[in-house]
Structures are given as structure tokens and as C-alpha cells.
Amino acid sequence: MRDVRDRWAALAERVDRATPAGRDRSVDALRALAILGVVFGHWLVTALTTDGGTLRGTSPLAQMPWLAPVSWVFQTLAVFFLVGGHVAAQGYASARARGVAYRAWVGQRLGRLFRPVAAVIALWAVVAGGLLLGGAEWDTVRTLLTLVWSPLWFLLVFAALTAATPLVARLSPVWPLAVVAGVDAWRFGFGGPLWVGWVNVAAGWLVPYTLGAAWARGAFARRRPALLLLGGAGAATVALVLWGGYPASMVGVPGAAISNLNPPTLAAASFGLAQCGLALLVREPLARAMRRPRTWAKVALLNLSAMTVFLWHQTSMMAVTALGLLVSTDLPGLHTVPASAGWIAARLLWLPVFAAALAVCWTAFRIHERPRPRAARPTAAVEAPLPGGRRPAPGRVITRA
């Protein structure tokens, strides 16, 4: 055990020394927290139950509405879009200064997003075909595919906003927020068609994305704007839930008439703004924490495989659930209906097992997230662009921007 600790300490020191002195480590820390929030949130609010041999998806939020505040902790996508807008705006400005063409810049960034996706789609296409040929019910296969592929919508929206960075980088968040408010007023106040809500898929996530671009321009150099954002948007969110008729849960709940997330509502947008305000306020404490080599090494390594963790966390949960069926069809917290505090306690005990399964997936599929090798590379070290789009010096091992 001591040998393992010594090796980890040595690795942490190497990662710390290899990180450029000017890198804002708090940005990587925020991205890591956002990814972990999504992963643990899905593991806590997603359940698979057996119904006559068919697997069906459900949620403890549907059975225990009083758990809705939990979604306020783990629904962290707004922070991810905040960081994405910040990094993309910096990267594009740097690319323009160096004379890099837009096509080359956007191709590099989108390649990082979509290379790991191919492995997920290919594996689950094979698994789904095998299950159907083996006699599995279509409802079971559809449930599994929905859990795996539904999070991919986030990548499509994020890719579209990334590609539109030159157009939206200087857009005020007020404008997409006004679009979200207008769409909700039309849908809920004037009986407009439901399909118009899908406009908010772009407008809703454009709010934190443009906020991140404003951050890159120095809009939050002082704490006061972030404090106002947290207080004002937080109060607006509470008011919308208490008196505006919006659901308390910030994630979708099976069977609910309205979802705050699918598509995003004004309540989700205001909540995201409050969450971004909090994220901007904790930058300094995070930066201080990241000065510790062991803490920074964990964040750096997670950022290098962020897409792998995101893409395979649902598969990990389902793999554990399927293997559990070999033992029993009624394992508490795994196959049972999430309708009691006992289920919550049991599910918490399964989280380390899900994490172990995710570690196996990470080992097998992280290779798809590595940058493509270039000819005549001077070093074998893993290199990644800095937040501003610059390349690190040869031999520097850092996280992806």
C-alpha cells in the first residue's frame, strides 16, 4: 500500500511540474465538478426495475417528490456550458491572433467531442442487436438505449454552440434569456404549440455559454457581479417554482407534465445562472486547492478523460444492474422500486460498485479520447491545448482545455 501511495505522489508531482505556470486550474476544477455532478446525479435519480421480465426506467423523484432539492445539487450542466463558452472564446481569440483558420480551429475542437462517441454507438448497436436476436423484449432494449444515447443530445447542442462561437462570443446572455422567457410565455401563458419549446434547447444553453464568453472578456474580474448573479437568479428561481408553476426538480421526472430540462425552461435558465454565479465565486478557493499537487493531479487526469467518463457512466450502471440479475431480480437499491428512504440508503452503497465498473470502461475506451498522433512528434508525452488555444511546451503533460 505504501508503494502505491509513493507512486501516486510521484505521479502527482510530475503532473504538477509539467503544468504551465499560467494555466487557470480553477477552470479545470469547475469542469471536473460539472462532470462528476452529472455522473452521480444520473446514478442517484435513475433506476431500472423488473416488470414481468422487462426492464423499465423510473426515478426516485417520481416516487418521492420531496427529493427534488437533490436535483439542484447534481444538475450541473450549466457550469459545463459556462466553462465551455469561456474556453472556446479564449481559444478562438488566440487562434485568430495566430492566424489559424476557423475551419481548422473548429475541426480540432469538434474532433475531441465526437471521436469517443463512435465507440459508444458501435458497442451498443452490437449489444442491442444481440439482445433482440437473443429474445429480449423491445421495451427492455429501448429502455437501455434511451439511457445510453439520450445524454448525447448534450454533445449536439454543445457542438453547435462551439461552432457558432464567432457569432455568439460577444452576445449578451440577456438576449437568449429573453428568448427563453418569451417561448415559455407563449407555451404556458397563451397556449402556444408545444413544439416551440424546442427553441429553448439552443437558447437555454446559450445563456451560460455566452456568460462564459463574457467571463473570458474579463466581465467577472470582481466578485460583485457574481454575487449579484447568484442572489438575483437564485431568488428568481425560487419565485418561479413557488409562484410560477414550474416544477421543483431541475431534471426530468417520468410522468411529469412539465420538465425543466427537456426542453429547458425559464426556471432552468435562471437556476443555471445562479449556479454559474456560485461557480464564479468559488474560483479563488478552487485555485488555492489546485496548488496541492495530489489534488491537481486528480482533476488533471479526470479532465483528460472527461468525455470517456461522461459517455460510459450510464453503461457502467446498467452493466452492474444486469450482472445483479444473475444473483437476484430483487436486489435493494438496484432492481427494487425507488419509493422509500431504504432505497436511497441501498443505492448509496451501490455507487462504489458503479464507479468500479466505470473504471473498467475507462480503461477499455479512454484510448478513443487521446489526440491523434502526429508525424515527427518530439515527445511521447500527452499534450493538450491551453485554455487560450496555445500548445504547451514539449514534454508538458496537462489536461485538455
Shape: globular
DSSP strand content? under 5%
Major beta sheet summary: 2 strands, antiparallel
Q: In angstroms, what is the radius of gyration?
A: 22 Å
Sheet with most strands: strand arrangement: 1-2
* Helix-and-strand structural type: mainly alpha
**Helix count, per DSSP?**
17
> How far is it from the N-terminal to the C-terminal residue, by CA?
33 Å
What is the H/E string? HHEEHHHHHHHHHHHHHHH
- Arithmetic mean of pLDDT: 87
**pLDDT under 50 segments (min length 5)?**
375-399
Query: Considering DSSP H and I runs of 4 or more, what fraction of the residues is helical?
Result: 55-70%
Number of strands: 2
Structural description of this entry:
With 401 residues, the protein is mainly alpha-helical. It has a domain at 22-46 and 67-303. The protein has 17 helices and two strands. It has helices at residues 2-18, 25-45, 60-63, 68-74, 77-97, 102-133, 138-149, 153-163, 165-168, 174-189, 199-216, 223-243, 266-281, 283-289, 293-304, 306-325, 341-365, and strands spanning 47-51, 54-58. Strands 1-2 form a two-stranded antiparallel ribbon. Strand 1 (47-51) and strand 2 (54-58) form a beta hairpin. The longest helix is centred in the first third of the chain and has 32 residues, at 102-133. The radius of gyration is 22 Å and the shape is globular. Mean pLDDT is 87; it is low at 375-399.
Describe the structure concisely for a colleague.
The chain is an all-alpha fold.
Topology:
Elements: H1 2-18, H2 25-45, E1 47-51, E2 54-58, H3 60-63, H4 68-74, H5 77-97, H6 102-133, H7 138-149, H8 153-163, H9 165-168, H10 174-189, H11 199-216, H12 223-243, H13 266-281, H14 283-289, H15 293-304, H16 306-325, H17 341-365
Antiparallel strand pairs: 1-2
Helix pairs in contact: 1-15, 2-4, 2-5, 2-14, 2-15, 2-16, 5-11, 5-13, 6-7, 6-8, 6-16, 10-11, 11-13, 12-13, 16-17
